[in-house]
């Protein structure tokens, strides 16, 4: 997963995903810390939450190279060890697809955000074309076993909205050089309403 997600084609999307992150930031599905290179240096503090011990081992090697404080914790987004309203921003990149109980995770994100806090997301999911959707549903029977729990058939905007977030910005597009079954993106900002 680290090698796949390190691909250069992801770099501009990572930079865009964390562009608006500020203050006390939580990144769920921190992975190997690939987003760290794109956070602003203006007083931000980043806490990473990652369930995969292999990914945490990779992240620990590089997270101290940055000029802002970074903390890495073992854990899942479904049961976060944080106070209510603790974070100004929560970042999720290519993470929501692999969370088993996504509804609980999104409720936890909403709980951990300050009122008016922003949930910043870059996720792949269910495309609007019904023919492609059928392929995505079939592919999602296999992808969890191949890609650490990943499902490519989740309607991310609807799921985020139904968790009590107001989506204020949303871009949908197909990532170039990625199969359409896996490359339909939901990139946006949602506010805790």
Structure, described:
Helix content is 30%, strand content 28%. The protein has 193 residues and is of the alpha/beta class. It has one domain: 3-Layer(aba) Sandwich (Rossmann fold). The chain has a 7-stranded mixed β-sheet with strand order 3-2-1-4-5-7-6. Helix 3 links the parallel strand 2 and strand 3. The longest helix has 11 residues. The chain is globular.
Summarize the structure.
This protein is α/β, with parallel strands linked by helices.
Question: What's the pLDDT, averaged over the residues?
Answer: 91
Report the radius of gyration as a whole number of Å.
Answer: 16 Å
Q: Could you say how many structural domains there are in total?
A: 1
The CATH architecture name reads 3-Layer(aba) Sandwich
List the uncertain runs.
Answer: none
Q: Could you name the CATH topology? A: Rossmann fold
User: Gap between N and C termini, in Å?
Assistant: 34 Å
What's the number of helices? 8
| Biggest sheet architecture | 7 strands, mixed
Tell me, briefly, the overall form.
Answer: globular
The quaternary structure here is single chain
- Please identify which CATH superfamily we are dealing with: Vaccinia Virus protein VP39
Number of strands: 7
Which series of helices and strands comes N to C?
HHEEHEEHEHHHEHE
Helix amount: 25-40%
Query: What's the CATH C level?
Result: Alpha Beta
Strand order of the largest sheet: 3-2-1-4-5-7-6
Fraction in beta strands: 25-35%
Structural class: alpha/beta
């Amino acid at each position: 997963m680290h090698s796949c997600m390190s691909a250069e084609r992801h770099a501009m999307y990572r930079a865009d995903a964390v562009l608006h992150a500020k203050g006390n930031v939580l990144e769920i599905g921190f992975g190997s810390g690939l987003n760290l290179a794109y956070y602003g240096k203006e007083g931000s503090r980043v806490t990473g939450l990652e369930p995969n011990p292999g990914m945490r081992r990779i992240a620990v090697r590089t997270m101290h190279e940055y000029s802002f404080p970074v903390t890495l914790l073992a854990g899942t987004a479904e049961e976060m060890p944080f106070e209510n309203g603790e974070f100004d921003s929560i970042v999720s990149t290519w993470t929501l697809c692999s969370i088993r109980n996504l509804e609980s995770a999104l409720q936890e994100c909403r709980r951990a955000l300050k009122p008016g806090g922003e949930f910043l997301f870059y996720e792949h999911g269910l495309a609007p074309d019904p023919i492609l959707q059928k392929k995505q549903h079939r592919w999602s029977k296999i992808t969890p076993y191949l890609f650490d729990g990943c499902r490519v058939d989740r309607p991310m905007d609807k799921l985020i909205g139904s968790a009590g977030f107001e989506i204020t910005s949303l871009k949908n597009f197909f990532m170039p050089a990625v199969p359409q079954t896996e490359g339909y993106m939901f990139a946006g900002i949602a506010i805790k309403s």
